[in-house]
What we know:
Layout: E1 6-8, H1 10-39, H2 48-73, E2 74-76, E3 93-97, E4 103-109, E5 120-122, H3 126-131, E6 139-144, E7 147-157
Parallel strand pairs: 1-2, 4-5
Antiparallel strand pairs: 3-4, 3-7, 6-7
Amino acid sequence: MAERTNPITPAGFAALRERYEQLFAIDRPAVVEIVHWAAGNGDRSENGDYIYGRQKLRAIDRELGQLSKKMKVAQILDPSKQEDRSRIFFGACVTIADIDDVQRIITIVGDDEADASNSRIGWNAPLSRALRGARVGDVKTVNLPTGPKEWEVLNINYPLGE
């Protein structure tokens, strides 16, 4: 099975790396110290610090593994370097309107940095997939669980380079 690449913005990748470093360099050693101390206190079967510490350590190791896999397949794409700014691609900030002229501004980002509450939509979300390659004035249909919904592209912006 071929590994899939994972597009991500430079800021999104930096956030993944920061989380990994926090867990690896600070959180994990602190929990290991607690588990080591608790293990020296005798009976481990009823030692809450030991039991909880081991569970916490497993959770940290699991998250470290997930972050490592995500960073390994990450493809860092800088939206400010997008050459064709007339179409919707990764990193675009798009203004769309539905049939009732309700406007919405979204930014298309990597799946690992998506945050719907801040209008950051993941690259593989149904709305992002429907809008890929669209130009201003295009009407795209998104198939939602409640049925199809049409969105018109009103504006496309990309962040400016440094």
